[in-house]
Write a structure and sequence with these properties.
The chain is α+β, with helices and mostly antiparallel strands. The chain is 23% helix and 34% strand. The N and C termini lie far apart (50 Å).
Length: 412
């Protein structure tokens, strides 16, 4: 698999644009097409083939599961299901459009998981040709999505009899490239203890399962016959897991080096630790949330989100919070099974993680944010369309009312 990452730099200040916060993060450049030529072949992606390119490629490549593409804030990425290209040079041709009323000129830096690098300036509309070069003596710099050259490490015991200390659980449904990228990031995050990657597949097509089986990072695959949703699929995977600790990880979340160990340390330092999660950041580094609080009406308070004055550095190493996101959540397998796992009443999604942390609280266990640990999270990579976003809103509100009926008195 080859990953192409684009970083946007030297654009106009978003503060000078009369747009809401969501648009400020997304509205800058869109691509109509991309051609990557390498020794022995080429690959072409037409982002505008399915309709309005503004809907498929805002600020780069919009969420496109078929191509393993995403774009959040000032960073985009695209995964190709092909081996690392041979040769020192790649030719990249982009057909792009800069929204002149917001960003008349945009500088971009391109990096690939094969070590090729290049940069260019986008302005107006047209084709940009770039030569991406790999130095003769290059130390591969890690992309946000992981290091393809460090996935085959001896501590990944997914396919061996050796018992892991940590089971990293990924869910997949017809997004094999995204899941493979998340597995690469997890495997190259360099946990110091033996670990396994266990992927529960929620009824993907045979074609997508075949792509998933080609994963670069070793993993065990649990094939479910149908879509079980977030909670039930994770429960089934937890029952199959071999590790003392479970790390639930979304397939659009990318672990960074050293942070698995940092989360594990919380259980040693904080005897009452029931669950722990990292600081979540957007792939461009912007703060997504640093743990979460709960209001009396059951709505979450995502600490630091959209707050330019919030500083993670002022937090304790392990900060007590009401709950941490299920996008990246670690707990003891014994505790998870004892409280019955994620409650299926919230199926297919939303509020399972919140309810889980509340049940831990009743057990006398606390939930902590590991403020020195970070995980890059795309967020809602599976619900980017208008219809799916509306469904997500309705489903979340439905489950909030269920959660409030159960925990309302305690929240007050």
């Amino acid at each position: 698999m080859l990953i192409l990452q684009i970083d946007y730099q030297n654009t106009a200040s978003p503060a000078s644009i009369s747009l809401d916060e969501r648009d400020k993060r997304e509205l800058a450049v869109f691509f109509r097409s991309l051609r990557l030529e390498y020794q022995g072949g080429e690959v072409v992606v037409d982002f505008s083939a399915s309709g309005n390119p503004k809907q498929t490629a805002l600020f780069g490549f919009w969420h496109s599961e078929a191509d393993g593409a995403w774009s959040v804030g000032a960073r985009s990425a695209l995964a190709f299901d092909l081996p690392p290209p041979r040769g020192r040079k790649l030719r990249l041709t982009l057909e792009a459009h800069c929204f002149e009323e917001a960003f008349p000129v945009c500088d971009i830096k391109v990096a690939t998981s094969s070590g090729h690098r290049g940069e260019a300036t986008i302005g107006g509309f047209g084709k940009i040709e770039m030569i991406l070069k790999k130095p003769f003596f290059c130390s591969y710099s890690r992309l946000v999505t992981g290091d393809m050259h460090a996935v085959a490490q001896c501590r990944n015991v997914s396919s061996r009899k050796k018992v892991p200390r940590v089971s990293i659980i990924l869910l997949n449904r017809d997004k094999p490239l995204m899941t493979r990228v998340a597995a690469v990031a997890a495997a190259s995050s360099k946990p110091s203890l033996p670990f396994e990657i266990l992927c529960a597949d929620n009824g993907s097509s045979a074609e997508n399962l075949a792509i998933l089986r080609q994963a670069e990072a070793g993993m065990r695959l649990l094939e479910l016959s149908e879509n079980k949703g977030f909670g039930e699929a994770n429960n089934l995977a937890a029952a199959e897991a071999r590790g003392e600790f479970l790390l639930f990880l979304n397939n659009d979340a990318f672990l960074q080096p050293g942070w698995v160990d940092e989360m594990l340390k919380c259980f040693q330092i904080q005897p009452d630790c029931g669950a722990v999660g990292p600081v979540l950041r957007w792939p461009d580094g912007g703060l997504q949330e640093a743990g979460c609080g709960l209001q009396p009406d059951g709505y979450p308070v995502r600490h630091g989100r959209g707050d330019p004055n919030f500083s993670v550095k002022t937090l304790k190493r392990y900060q007590s919070v009401d709950y941490v996101s299920g996008a990246c959540l670690m707990m003891r397998r014994m505790d998870f099974l004892e409280i019955g796992g994620f409650d299926p009443i919230y199926s297919p999604a939303y509020y399972e993680d919140t309810d889980l942390c509340m049940r831990l609280r009743v057990m006398g266990k606390a939930t902590y944010l590991a403020s020195r640990a970070e995980c890059y999270h795309i967020e809602n990579a599976t619900s980017h369309g208008v219809e799916s976003a509306q469904w997500a809103t309705r489903q979340s509100e439905k489950n909030r009312l269920i959660f409030l009926e159960r925990w309302g008195k305690i929240l007050k």
